[in-house]
């Protein structure tokens, strides 16, 4: 009886979260109209030892069908030919500006310091950010990501997807990315914005300076995207953009160890979120972590039929909300795998949490 009661509590908690997440799943985004004139935008990319990605992606950024933008390339103390590649594009295209960052003792290997110098170099107030390994989904990416800027809306959250490959690791990476997006987009639509991803993020320089940049968390290795959004975002100053043509696509990790190290670094920032965000995110993780062990145990009791009904109800609701969102995020092939990927992910996240408790995660390259 106790197990089934606990299962009912966990299932009920999950259903409340799914109802909360439905804000994005059933959100009808407006198709932006074209501006008569393109508002000036600075596209900023910070790169460290990214020579091959820059050779492939700088032409794609410059091919954006947008008449009024500059491309700020920030070389973050690279040890390869990153600077030379940046300078070669700057010589052939006047829209390209280069910032060469050298390590100094106070900000050694600190991406936030490099990004700050890139922002100071920008001549426009509207700023769009992506990573060196990110490819825009279309030539309309820049226009779509910046069309929502207004006097009130000064921060735009986009979706940074990962390319589809074969294998369970790729599915798990894309599932985690889509689920994270479903959460931060839904929280934003509910008036509780808490994070964004630097692979596809836009904000104004006014907001950056008003928030005093990254100063409150400059000593934390990660968080140039989510910690900044967590501090600067309000219920009124944020908009979202999830039109498929406005996505960016990155190369996913191809080894479990590589992804393990990446997530170890990323997950450390969550402990610096505002209290209400930590409570909401933490309770969702605990609910997801406990549900399946309790569900399996409940099926072995005399009340197994009640347990089966609760499990079925949760699965149907999860498929409805996650499935709709994954279709919008162009991750529909993950839908049949949702319960299995959920179990894999929460187990993986638990192992990272335990590992980070006993040792420090790696820094930015």
- If you compute it from the alpha carbons, what radius of gyration comes out, rounded to the nearest whole angstrom? 21 Å
Count up the helices.
Answer: 12
CATH superfamily of the largest domain: Spore Coat Polysaccharide Biosynthesis Protein SpsA, Chain A
- CATH fold assignment of the largest domain: Spore Coat Polysaccharide Biosynthesis Protein SpsA, Chain A
What is the percentage of strand-forming residues?
5-15%
The main sheet orders its strands as 3-2-1-4-8-6-9
Calculate the mean pLDDT score and round it. 93
Determine the N-to-C terminus distance: 51 Å
Report on this structure.
- The chain is of the alpha/beta class and 365 residues long.
- 50% of the residues lie in helices and 12% in strands.
- It has helices spanning 2-25, 51-62, 82-92, 111-121, 141-146, 168-189, 205-210, 226-232, 256-267, 275-298, 304-328, 338-358; strands at 41-47, 69-76, 96-101, 126-131, 135-136, 155-157, 160-162, 201-204, 238-240, 248-250.
- The strands form 2 sheets. It has a 7-stranded mixed β-sheet, with helices on both faces.
- The chain is elongated, with a radius of gyration of 21 Å.
- The model has no long low-confidence stretch (mean pLDDT 93).
List strands and helices in order, with pairings:
Blueprint: H1 2-25, E1 41-47, H2 51-62, E2 69-76, H3 82-92, E3 96-101, H4 111-121, E4 126-131, E5 135-136, H5 141-146, E6 155-157, E7 160-162, H6 168-189, E8 201-204, H7 205-210, H8 226-232, E9 238-240, E10 248-250, H9 256-267, H10 275-298, H11 304-328, H12 338-358
Parallel strand pairs: 1-2, 1-4, 2-3, 6-9, 7-10
Antiparallel strand pairs: 4-8, 5-10, 6-8
Helix pairs in contact: 1-6, 1-10, 1-11, 2-3, 6-12, 9-12, 10-12
């Amino acid at each position: 009886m106790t197990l089934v009661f606990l299962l009912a509590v966990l299932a009920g908690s999950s259903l409340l979260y799914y109802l909360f997440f439905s804000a994005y799943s059933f959100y009808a985004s407006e198709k932006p109209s074209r501006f008569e004139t393109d508002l000036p935008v600075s596209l900023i990319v910070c790169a460290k030892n990214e020579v091959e990605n820059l050779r492939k992606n700088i032409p794609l950024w410059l091919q954006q069908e947008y008449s009024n933008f500059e491309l700020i390339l920030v070389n973050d103390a690279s040890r390869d030919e990153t600077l030379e590649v940046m300078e070669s594009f700057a010589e052939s295209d006047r829209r390209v500006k280069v910032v060469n960052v050298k390590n100094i003792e106070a900000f050694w290997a600190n991406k936030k310091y490099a990004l700050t110098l890139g922002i100071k170099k920008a001549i426009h107030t509207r700023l769009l950010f992506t990573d060196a390994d990110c490819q825009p989904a279309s030539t309309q990416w820049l226009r779509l990501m910046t069309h929502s800027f207004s006097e009130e809306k000064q921060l735009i959250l986009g979706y940074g997807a990962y390319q589809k490959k074969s294998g369970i690791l790729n599915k798990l990476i894309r599932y985690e990315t889509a689920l994270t997006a479903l959460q931060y987009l839904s929280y934003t639509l509910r008036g509780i914005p808490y994070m964004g991803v630097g692979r596809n993020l836009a904000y104004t320089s006014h907001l950056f300076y008003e928030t005093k940049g990254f100063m409150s968390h400059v000593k934390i290795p990660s968080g140039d995207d989510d910690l900044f959004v967590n501090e600067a975002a309000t219920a009124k100053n944020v908009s979202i953009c999830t039109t498929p043509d406005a996505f960016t696509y990155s190369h996913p990790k191809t080894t479990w160890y590589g992804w393990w190290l990446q997530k170890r670094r990323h997950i450390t920032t969550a402990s610096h979120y505002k209290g209400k965000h930590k409570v909401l995110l933490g309770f969702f993780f605990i609910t997801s972590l406990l549900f399946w062990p309790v569900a399996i145990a409940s099926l072995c009791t005399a009340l197994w039929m009640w347990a089966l009904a609760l499990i079925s109800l949760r699965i149907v609701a999860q498929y409805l909300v996650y499935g709709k969102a994954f279709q919008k995020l162009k991750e529909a092939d993950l839908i049949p795998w949702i319960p299995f990927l959920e179990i894999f992910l929460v187990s993986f996240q638990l192992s990272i949490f335990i590992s980070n408790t006993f040792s420090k995660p790696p820094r930015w390259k």
